[in-house]
Design goal:
Layout (H helix, E strand, L loop, with lengths): L2 H4 L6 H13 L4 H14 L4 H8 L3 H9 L5 H12 L2
Helix pairs in contact: 2-3, 4-5
């Protein structure tokens, strides 16, 4: 079984709206935007390899984000705040 099936990402409509806002405003750190892109593409059913090619990141980066998905908007906002402190 591949990583995609073991760690499927299902983003709720409210979370998808927040993720799309993160990637479209460009007001967040690059790592936060990249993570949002990864979660959106994973939700679309893209494989790790496809996402890797689209976003120019390693498949390991994709797997890390798929294995530790954002469980709520609060988690995503926490991640964004962590990167704001740098």
């Amino acid at each position: 079984m591949d990583d995609m099936k073991k760690h499927a990402v299902a983003v709720q409509p409210q979370e998808k709206k927040k993720l799309k806002a993160i990637v479209s405003t460009g007001q967040n750190k690059t790592a936060v935007i990249r993570r949002a892109h990864i979660l959106l593409k994973a939700d679309e059913g893209k494989t790790d390899g496809e996402i890797s090619e689209i976003l120019y990141v390693s498949e390991q980066t994709i797997r890390r984000n798929r294995v530790k998905p954002v469980h709520s908007l609060t988690d995503l906002e926490y991640i964004a705040r962590q990167f704001e402190s740098y």
